[in-house]
Write a structure and sequence with these properties.
The complex is a heterodimer of chains A (about 160) and B (about 280).
Chain A lengths: L3 E2 L1 H6 L6 E2 L24 H9 L31 H4 L2 H9 L41 H12 L4
Helix pairs in contact in A: 2-5, 4-5
Chain B lengths: L3 H12 L14 E3 L3 E3 L2 E3 L9 E3 L7 H7 L8 H11 L10 H5 L14 E3 L4 E3 L1 H13 L9 H12 L15 H12 L9 H5 L6 E2 L2 E2 L10 E3 L4 E3 L1 H10 L11 H12 L10 E3 L1
Parallel strand pairs in B: 9-11
Antiparallel strand pairs in B: 1-2, 3-4, 5-6, 7-8, 9-10
The chains are: A mainly alpha (about 160), B alpha+beta (about 280).
Chain lengths: ~160, ~280
């Protein structure tokens, strides 16, 4: 696996990630799982919760119901309920699902949150105009880790 | 529902009321002013392989929104029909004509909106009703074109829809229109944008499901132009398409583009059998 070493960042901020995997360099396992942290750091479940519910970030509840997130309106029904996801899946599975669900569920309608190429007519966010330059993934490596950490708390 | 997991999702949906959403009365029927019966459910046309039944978007709206459309005094879109009537009778352009001077009463146009988009032999193209109106303005009246999906043209399409209310959508998809129709079908099933979603992903695979606070319909266009409570004005078909494409984080096509004309023909044909109900009320 090729890694971008953010040496300068690591040197100046000791808590910051020292090794992050870029979207095109991710290694998926046979079942779409990703074994290592994308940011090189552990995830933070509390921040993951924010990513799950906010429209501009993961907006996961647009498609999924989560009982533990009942206080946050509105939950959709396009995907399955996520209660118990932390029991059903390993951390590596969940990382793979969030990064690119199509590797796990072919033809899925779930967007790939850590992918930057292979799209038809990619736009500049939600402006309706063409994207200029390289796309950013929908979530950063650390945000993916935070979401995975949150999903791991969803146990029955 | 295509996949097992999606089927599971819809079973969950049947068992639990999703948190914080307004429910629609999906079994309701629509009769406007106690007179005009609107077919809001119909058997899917033969060309639609993945659906058995088609539904008007009205079916999925909240009960209060549904009620607005059942009464012309309550329907905020009807005011624009009145403006459309005024335009119908207005003489404009070098030829000194109005729509009425050639076509008679607007009611003479009953049924026409149900057949558009339609192939035009003379120009060898598929025309939306908006394109046809503009062709009459430039070629018959010597007047300026109206802007697509803007006030005058929307008011006129609202008038032409209103006189066809209750009549079944019946656009031709074969013969010379077939190539355009096929282009529209391809667009319908092509995933776009960084969210990588096609029209079908939302409006064919997931109608009846909530996506965040929105109750997904089949994305039919038998109710256009629509009065949306969200922006309190009439909305044209292509503007609606634009919004949906934009929401996949894609570069959209423009209003009036050949792509959207083709998509309009295809989407309209998915509603063959539903009634024209414009101007409809949506959220």
């Amino acid at each position: 696996m090729k890694r971008i070493v953010l040496a300068a960042a690591a040197a100046s901020i000791s808590t910051f990630a020292y090794a992050q995997t870029a979207p095109n360099d991710v290694t998926f396992g046979d079942y779409g799982e990703i074994e290592v942290s994308l940011s090189g750091e552990a995830g933070d479940a509390a921040r993951g919760l924010e990513v799950m519910v906010s429209r501009g970030k993961g907006n996961c509840i647009a498609c999924h119901e989560v009982t533990a997130l009942q206080d946050y309106p509105f939950h959709g029904e396009v995907g399955p309920m996520l209660d118990g996801a932390g029991d059903r899946w390993t951390e590596a599975d969940l990382r793979g699902i969030v990064a690119n669900a199509k590797n796990v569920f072919p033809e899925s309608v779930m967007p790939a949150f850590y992918r930057t190429d292979g799209f038809t007519r990619p736009g500049d966010a939600y402006t309706g105009r063409a994207a200029e330059g390289e796309l950013d993934p929908l979530l950063t490596a650390q945000e993916i880790e935070d979401v995975v950490a949150y999903l791991m708390t969803l146990t029955d | 529902m295509k996949t097992k997991l999606l089927a599971t999702a819809s079973i969950c949906a049947a068992l639990t009321v999703p948190f914080g959403t307004v429910m629609a009365d999906e079994d309701a029927n629509l009769i406007i002013d106690g007179e005009i019966e609107i077919t809001v459910r119909a058997p899917a046309p033969d060309h639609l392989e993945n659906l058995d039944e088609i539904f008007s978007g009205w079916v999925y709206r909240a009960t209060e929104t549904q009620a607005l459309q059942a009464d012309d005094f309550e329907n905020p879109g009807m005011i624009f029909v009145d403006s459309g009537h005024d335009l119908w009778n207005t003489v404009e352009g070098e030829a000194g004509e109005s729509c009425a001077s050639c076509h008679g009463d607007a009611e003479e146009m009953a049924g026409v909106a149900a057949t558009y988009p339609k192939w035009n032999d003379a120009t060898e193209e598929v025309r939306t009703i908006s394109m046809q109106i503009n062709a009459c303005r430039t070629e018959q009246m010597g007047a300026e074109e109206w802007n697509l999906d803007k006030s005058e043209l929307l008011n006129m399409t609202a008038l032409l829809a209103s006189v066809s209310r209750g009549m079944p959508v019946n656009v031709a998809i074969d013969g010379p229109a077939q190539a355009t129709w096929e282009m529209g079908r391809d667009l319908y099933y092509t995933r776009t944008g960084q969210l990588d979603l096609s029209c079908a992903n939302c409006h064919e695979d997931n109608y009846g499901n909530n996506i965040r606070a929105d109750h997904l319909s089949q994305g039919q266009i038998n109710g256009f132009p629509t009065y949306r409570l969200k922006n309190a004005r009439l909305n044209g078909v292509h503007s609606r398409f634009r919004g949906c494409v934009r929401d996949t984080r894609a570069e959209t096509y423009s209003v009036g583009s050949p792509e959207f004309v083709a998509l309009e023909l295809y989407v309209m044909s998915r509603g063959n059998g539903l009634s024209i109900e414009g101007p409809s009320v949506r959220n």
